[in-house]
Structures are given as C-alpha cells and as structure tokens.
Amino acid sequence: MTVSAPDHAIPAGVAHSAPAAGDPPEGVATPSVPLIPSAGRPVAALLLMSLVLTLLVFAWAAWDHHRRVWDDARDQVVDVTHVLEEHAGKIFSIHAASLRYVERLVDDAGWKEIAGDSRFYDRLREIWQASPELEGVWVVDPTGIVRVNTMQWPTPALDVSDREYFRAQLKPGSGIYIGQQLRGRLSGQPFLPISQRMQTLDGRFNGVAQLSLRPDYFISFYRSLFAGEPKTMLLIREDGALLLREPAASDDSLQQGSYPGFIQAPVDAAGTFILTSPIDGVERLYARRKVPNLPLYVVYGITTDSIASEWEGRALIYAAVAVPASLALMLVAWIAIRRSRDLVRADRILRQANTVLEARVADRTRHLDKALAEREMLLRDTHHRVKNNLQVVSSLLQLQASMNPALRPVLGDALRRIQAMGILHEQLHRATDVDVVPLDRVITALAREIDNIHQGEGTPADEARRVTLALAVEPLATDLTASVPVTLVLNEVLSNAFKHAYPGGRGGALSVTLRREGEEGVLTVTDDGIGMPDATVRAGRKSLGLLLIDAFTRQLRGSFRYEDGAPGTRFTLRFPLG
Question: Which residues belong to any copy of the Histidine kinase domain (predicted)?
C-alpha cells in the first residue's frame, strides 16, 4: 500500500521564519490600538476618587470593627457566664445531694449514737475527702449544738444556733440555704455555708446538715480562667447578697454586702448589661445567669475601657495602613502618568506577538493531527498485512499437511495457533482504537473459529453438533501486549478440550467465560468430558500445549490452574489488566 508523505508545507499567510519583534506575520490581522496622547487628567481624577474611597473605607472599617469588638465582647461574657454557671451548678448540686445523704445517715444512726460513733465520723470524712472545695462537714442537732464535724474527733461542744445558716432552717420548707462568707470558729478561715433543714417523718425540725465551702477554691479556679485580665466574676444570692467576688481583696477580709443592682439591671437582646459597679466604681459589660434550682446567680463582666482600648488599638492600625496607602497611591499615579504611553505600546506589541503565536500553534496542531491520522492508518494497514501473511502461511501449512499425512497432526496444531493470531489481527484491523484491543470480541471470534474447525468441517449446517459451546464474555479491553498471550492460551486450552475431553464421539458441553475481578481479568474454560489425568500436569512431563500455556502465563505475569470439574475439567487463567 502506498502511503502519502505528510504535508508539512507552511500554510499561506504564515511566514516560515520568525518575524521581527513588533512586526505581524504576513496575512495575519493585527488589532489596531491607538496610542493615548495623555493620561494625566484621567489618572488625576482616579487618584482623587481613590483618596476619597480610601477615607470612606477607613471610616467604614473603623465603625465595623467597633461593632465587631462589642459583639465579640458580648458573646464572650455570655459564653464565659454560661461556663461559670455550669461549674457553680455542678458544685452546688453535688453538695445539695451530699446534704441529703447526710440527712439519711442521721436518720439511720439517731442522735444518741452519732456523737460516740466513729463510723459516722468516717462516713462524713469520706464526703469531705472526695471534694477539695470542702472545708468541713457539720451535723447540728435541733438545739444548735454541733454533734459531729470533720475537723476534729471527738467533736468539741460548739453552739452555732446564732449562725444564719442555722436560723434560716428553723422555718419549714426553707430548702437549700447558701449564706454569705463567715469565719470558722475552729479554723479561723473564711467559708461559704450551704445548709439544709433535717426533719422527722412527721415534719418536725430535726437539726441542720451544713457544708463549709472554701472561697479560695473558687478564687483559684476563676483566676486560672482569666489571670491578669481586667475581668470580674461574682456569685450573688437572688436577694442581692454577695457571696464571692474575683478579684478578691488582698487581705483576709470577708466578702459581704448586698448589691441587688446586679440582679435587677435589665439586659439587652444578647443577655448583657452595662453597669457601674457599686463595689469598685468601674463601668463594665456584664452578663448573668441563674443557677437552676438554687437561689444563686453567676455574674461575669469585663471593663468597657478594655473594650474601647482594643478598638482604639485596631483603629490606629487602620490609620497606619491608610496613610501610607494613600501616599503609595499618589506615587503609583505619578508613575502611571509617565508610563501610560509605554504600557499602551507594549500592549500593542504583545497583541501582535500573541496573534503570531496563535497562528503557529494552529499550524502545528494541524501537522500533529495529520501525523496522528497517518500513524493510525499505518497501524491498521500493518495489522491487515500481518493477517494476510498469516493466511498465506496457513495455506502453505494446509498444503503441506495434505501432501504429508504423517505430519498432519503436528501441522494442524501449528495451523490453529497461526489462525488464532490471524483472528486477533483481524479484530485489531476492525477496531476503532488501534491501541486498545476488545478482548471480548477476540475471545468470541476465536472460540467460534475453533468450534468450526473441530466440528463444522464436513458437518451439515442443519445437523446438531455433539459438543455445544456456550460463551459468556463481558466487555473487556486491554492492550496488544496482553491480548496476544491470552488469545494463544485460549487456543491451546479450547483445542485440547475438543480433542481429548470427548473421545469416541461422546457429546457434551463446553463453556468459555471472560470477566473482570478488580484489577484482574479472569478467563475460564469448562468441559464435562472425561477429565485430565494428573500425570499430564506433573513436572517434567508436560506436553507442548502445557509448556506454551505456562510460557504465555509467565509473559502475562498471571497464573493458571486446572481443576477437576467432577465431571470434566475447569481451566482458569488470571492476568492483570494493563
């Protein structure tokens, strides 16, 4: 076949040699871009607009940052207050449960046994040891005398009937009482009392269970959250009584007083309020939350001065950016006025060069497309010629076999192998993509050809064949490197089945399947014939067919095996898909 040489002639209108810089190639249109005589006035107007816009942006950024700083501050105080409320709720809820537990211990032991029973004292000590915030656990009888406490054993006689946490529980239904800070009569240390009324089954007053909480525990916890920052936290009873405040006084004085303003101040939509503290006279942004099921509020605040300072610091940063930016803008405008003509001229030259480049790329693309088409045509012609040459070789072998009957079996095997190669090249010649082999079509054509060779010659078309062939092949594509060994393996296995599986004119059924399993192709040939003797597959005694199968499988980097099909034989080939 005569193949015309590629036409690499330069298209009309495109110069063979590179044009000089700034000169478009002949026949290529160049966009006309007029030079700007002067850009002074437009750039000056742009400069003025830019300066005004810079000031507006600065003002907007300052206002927006002011809003965001206050929104962030509100979110912060609300979030921190929620965390502090959860902490206080857990602490006081746990100790409310502890008070109920102490009441049950008293009911079980009775007042006569409590004072001299060390086991009762040990149980109270277990409560005290489990909670680091506890200074002590106290059990007071109905007359106000402390019967047991966890600070001393045996417990000395101590009258606390004058304490507010005892007097508050004389009234029925008083519930949990949280008192202001007191100083311990045994330890001399400040503590927060939390007490509960104990009563008999008929509702009579039966004494008080009281826990002493250490204020320094709460102070340490709050300082760990915001050490060194201008923030404050308060625990306030619902009647305004101050229980605890951080920052605390530097001395050991008790924190007391009543400040109902923290409870009564109205809140905004975010749940915050601004109040000048009646304690230290500092204006702060506060948020408050009530501890569920307890007469207790948690209040948290940050100074408005610190919020304003944060905004002012960022505004100064904006100003420090805006002023140099304006100066830089004026400098850029001055440079732009001087360079405007050069930029316009450079743009024109770039457009011309781009036009030349596009023309050359289009010309090169045409050459590549033409070369690709010629390559595909050459490959198709090669496959066609190989197929024709194989047919010639096949005809010569058939002639040789007819002239020498003794060589007919050997030449017949060689003939079938050549025919298998011919079928593969025929499919490649017909394929739309010469680089991809439709393996399912090759398998189908080859299996039918082998069936015709062994059963079709000399058999009337309307006569049923003694061995039926069933094909179940999935669409599967591979390259030429893998398709050749697979085709030759199928030729050996299927020809062997037709020749040896059904001796003496026996009938049966042969099946060929092809499928994909993950990244592997699986070819299976199954017959229901007499089976394969083990001796044929022992090492050192393989037939030529098995040697070829082994060689082709190694070439594929795959694996194969023969299995007893009971009846018949099953051959399985696994090979990677490239």
Answer: 381-578
pLDDT at 242 over 70: yes
**Residues contacting 39, CB < 8 A, separation 6+:** 336, 337, 340, 341
- CATH 1.10.8.60, domain 437-456+466-576, yes or no: no
Count of Cβ atoms closer than 10 Å to residue 481 Cβ: 11
> Which of 6-15, 172-181, 369-378, 407-416 is predicted with the least confidence, judged by mean pLDDT?
6-15
Q: Which residues of 201-220 are buried (b: 16+ CB within 10 A; e: fewer)?
A: eeeeebbbbbbbbbbebbbe
> Residue 216: CB partners within 8 Å, gap ≥ 6?
none
Strand 467-473 and strand 508-517: pairing? parallel
Query: For residues 470 and 509, is the Cβ–Cβ distance under 8 A?
Result: yes
Q: Tens of pLDDT along 393-438?
A: 766 666 666 677 766 666 666 666 676 666 766 666 565 566 788 8
Spatial separation of the C-alpha atoms in residues 560 and 490, rounded to whole Å: 12
What average pLDDT does the segment 150-154 reach? 82
CB 504 within 8 A of CB 545: no
Buried b / exposed e over 433-446, threshold 16 CB at 10 Å, is ebeebbbbbbbbbb
How far apart CA 381 and CA 387 sit, in angstroms, is: 10
H or E segment to which residue 67 belongs: helix 40-109
Q: What is the largest CA-CA distance in the chain?
A: 136
Residue 426 · residue 436 · CB < 8 Å? no
Burial class from Cβ neighbours inside 10 Å (0-12, 13-18, 19+) for residue 189 reads middle
**CA-to-CA distance for 253 and 248, rounded, in angstroms?**
9
Residue 547 neighbours by CB under 8 Å, 6+ apart: none
- Please name every residue paired with 286 in a beta bridge, in sequence order, or none if there are none: 273, 301
**Whole-Å CA distances, 413 to 13, 386, 540:** 62, 20, 21
Task: Quote the CA–CA distance of 205 and 57 in Å, as a whole number.
Answer: 72
Average pLDDT in the 449-463 region? 70
- pLDDT by residue (tens digit) across 107-127? 888 887 777 777 888 888 888
Secondary structure letter of residue 3 according to DSSP:
-
Question: Is the Cβ–Cβ distance between 248 and 278 less than 8 Å?
Answer: no
Phi, psi of 467 (to 5 degrees): -120, 115
Helix (H) or strand (E) holding 488: helix 480-500
Provide the CB-side half-sphere exposure for 553 (13 A, CA): 20
Residue type, 350: L
| Distance, CA of 477 to CA of 479 (rounded, Å) | 7
Where are the chain's structural domains? 40-65+318-347, 437-456+466-576
pLDDT of amino acid 5:
41
